[in-house]
Design brief:
The chain has about 700 residues and is mostly helical. The chain has 30 helices and four strands. This is Nose resistant-to-fluoxetine protein N-terminal domain-containing protein.
Length: about 700
């Protein structure tokens, strides 16, 4: 039992926490765990300190057997002996322990200590090796409804198990606060010393290596083919021009995030087609081809890239809160008018759903309007199969990478041992593979952003219910079905919010988990913008024909633009009055329900007018901005960048040795880095996975 007293001595000797200060009880937004600090009797800590200091550690009965393993006691004895002799390795061990920091009233409850100092404190001659551990306990909820975990970092001997360490902490807190917190071994998380690749990891590595090898081999063969067919290939300038000889068309495809339509000349031999599909030369040309024609919906490029940037911006702010030493300062951010752009960044996803609907409606009607076209089972099978095959390869690579590989590539005091996906996902990921993750519980997701792709593919599978009547010139039936489904969408949102008080404030409400699961994720509550997109795509097909004059009178166009812009501003900033007095509410429950029910529909109609006006030459300067040619390659890479950004952002946050400090300018700086990094890594995913498989799809599903 005395070994526990010695452990307390270690902590007291070097923590500098022997002060009798009390925490003020009346502090704005102070979490309840701060007030509980006043229940700690510091005199108990002092008594233990002097008792431990007076012990003669040379006595044989000092490390008597007990609930702590003998190997753990022996290592702590070595550590104690090193401290009395002032050996540097032992001082490093204790110095690496976390100390109570400033900023407790701002939510600073993650005390990480010194991760690298702990690992550097090994003593080979004494056979003492450390490991970094954290004590984790769920703190009381903040008044902002944000729940965080109390985390305390410390350095422990390698031979001390989690059960040993939990027993020690139980004793410390029992003596310190006269209360047993019942720590168990699951509350102690120690960093893995080594990770050996398991079978799934090796399968992933071999598969990706083969894929990269095929791309490089195809690129080399393509280069040789160009060299042999060019009589002036010895001239490097001529060779460069020969590489760029093809007039490559990159039409928009029927997918919300613009997976590149890998154009392949089907007149070539099939082996040559496959080589071109995998070749870096061909694929880079397709990404950076700026040629367009009137069939392209160019305004979608700008909306797509801006929306992706908005997603990354919101995620940068939102996720960094949980890795910061001042999370309660985020409440002050909410009170700033312009910060509503970040706090209401959810509309960026509705823009993606809208674009998906526009492309689906426009291209379906365009394909079925061809002369002598017949709507057959084969056509519909290809319709469904194409969407699944366009989305899946890149998604599966990122899904498997996140589940099977991230546990081997990261380290740090905040990096989870299981990687960036829960351990259960290694055997239970069928919902993510089958695009059903939006029906999983919040804590059952394996790849956080897959809920969006699940909704998108479900919308796409549902769309023919509306599109087939429209394609068969049964316009009344098609529009009627669209309106009925849209009414069902609005009614489902209204009833869910009305029958579950606390959900009307969205993720900022007292019932945010229910809102997220049953309103934010479900297809019947999120399909509104997609339905609006189908209608706009249908109208655009007819209004973009040369024979149709879609020019709107200047005065009416100006009125429409002002209405659309004002409605967009209303959707984003309407809740600012709430945020100013958060956590109180300015609006009534019914007003919030009405806002949540209709805001996404209003957003889709407003952005939809932007698209319609720009594509019918009524957009003016806005059309010029959204159709800027620089957006073309960025839009082609947006799907891969979207898939990459989630894992990349969490990897960046969790591998830090220090907590972040929330500051607006610093967060903008991080956002810029996350945006660029996502596109750089997304480019690799695009050229090595997305475009080769899309090329194969074009070849074999003609």
């Amino acid at each position: 039992m005395k070994i526990k007293i010695i452990f307390v001595f270690f902590y007291v000797e070097f923590s500098g926490f022997l002060n009798g200060q009390k925490v003020p009880k009346q502090v704005e937004f102070s979490p309840t765990y701060v007030l509980n600090l006043n229940q700690v009797d510091i005199s108990q800590f002092t008594d233990l300190y002097h008792e431990a200091k007076s012990l003669n550690y040379f006595q044989n009965d000092l490390f008597s057997p007990g609930s702590i393993s003998q190997s753990c006691e022996l290592e702590i004895e070595k550590l104690f002996k090193g401290l009395t002799e002032k050996e540097q390795w032992s001082l490093k061990t204790i110095d690496s322990f976390a100390k109570p920091p400033s900023g407790l009233l701002k939510g600073n409850i993650n005390w990480l200590g010194e991760y690298t100092e702990c690992l550097d404190s090994k003593n080979i001659s004494s056979n003492c090796y450390p490991k970094y551990c954290t004590l984790n306990k769920k703190a009381s909820q903040f008044e902002s409804q944000i729940s965080l975990n109390l985390k305390y970092g410390f350095c422990a001997p390698m031979n001390c198990s989690s059960n040993d360490l939990a027993e020690i902490f139980n004793y410390i807190f029992l003596k310190l606060a006269k209360k047993n917190l019942s720590f168990v071994q699951d509350d102690i998380i120690c960093q893995n010393e080594t990770n050996v690749f398991d079978t799934p990891a090796w399968i992933f590595i071999v598969t990706i290596s083969c894929l990269v090898g095929l791309v490089l081999l195809a690129s080399l063969i393509h280069l040789i083919m160009i060299y042999k067919t060019n009589p002036f290939a010895s001239n490097t300038t001529t060779l460069y021009l020969q590489i760029n000889e093809d007039n490559v068309s990159t039409n928009l495809v029927d997918i919300e995030n613009l997976v590149v339509n890998t154009h392949v000349d089907l007149r070539r031999p099939i082996m040559e087609q496959i080589i071109h599909s995998f070749s870096l030369i061909s694929n880079f040309k397709k990404i950076f081809n700026f040629e367009t024609d009137d069939n392209h919906l160019l305004s979608l490029n700008g909306i797509r890239v801006i929306s992706l940037g908005w997603v990354i911006l919101s995620h940068t702010f939102g996720f960094t809160v949980f890795y910061s030493d001042n999370p309660l300062d985020s409440l002050n951010f909410l009170k700033r008018f312009l910060f509503s752009i970040v706090s209401n960044g959810f509309f960026s996803v509705d823009s993606f759903f809208l674009i998906s609907g526009v492309l689906t409606g426009y291209l379906f009607i365009k394909n079925t309007a061809r002369p002598n076209f017949k709507l057959t089972y084969s056509f519909m099978l290809k319709y469904y199969l194409n969407r699944f095959l366009r989305l899946s390869p890149s998604l599966y690579v990122m899904l498997f990478f996140t589940i099977f590989m991230t546990k081997y590539i990261g380290y740090g005091p905040m990096y989870p041992n299981e990687g960036l996906s829960p351990t259960r996902c290694r055997t239970d990921l069928w919902k993510d593979l089958l695009y059903l993750s939006n029906f999983a519980k919040i804590n059952e997701t394996c790849f956080g952003i897959n809920w969006y792709l699940s909704n998108d593919i479900q919308f796409h599978f549902m769309a023919p219910v509306i599109l087939i009547p429209l394609a068969l010139n049964k316009f009344f039936i098609g529009i009627l079905l669209l309106i009925l489904i849209l009414i069902g969408n609005l009614v489902s949102i209204f009833l869910t919010l009305y029958n579950n008080p606390g959900t009307e404030l969205g993720i900022y409400g007292t019932n945010s988990e229910y809102y997220f699961e049953w309103v934010y994720l479900k297809p019947w509550t999120r399909c509104g913008p997609f339905l609006i997109g189908i209608f706009i795509g249908f109208i655009l097909y007819f209004h973009k024909r040369p024979s149709y004059d879609a020019k709107i009178k200047k005065i009416y166009n100006l009125i429409n633009w002002n209405i659309a812009q004002n409605l967009i501003g209303l959707c984003i900033f309407a809740l600012y009055q709430d945020f100013k007095i958060f956590p109180d509410s300015y609006y009534t429950q019914m007003q919030h329900i009405i806002y949540q029910t209709f805001s996404r529909l209003i957003w889709a109609l407003s952005v939809g007018y932007f698209i319609y006006a720009c594509e019918t030459k009524n957009g003016g300067i806005i059309s010029n901005i959204l159709s800027w040619k620089l957006f073309i390659p960025l839009a082609r890479l947006s799907y891969s960048a979207f898939l990459v950004h989630f894992t990349y952002l969490f990897y960046f946050l969790s591998t830090q040795n220090r907590l972040f400090n929330l500051q607006e300018l610093k967060m903008v700086y991080y956002f810029i880095g996350n945006f660029i990094g996502s596109y750089v890594l997304g480019t690799l995913l695009c050229i090595f996975v997305e475009m080769p498989f899309n090329g194969l799809q074009t070849i074999f599903i003609k």
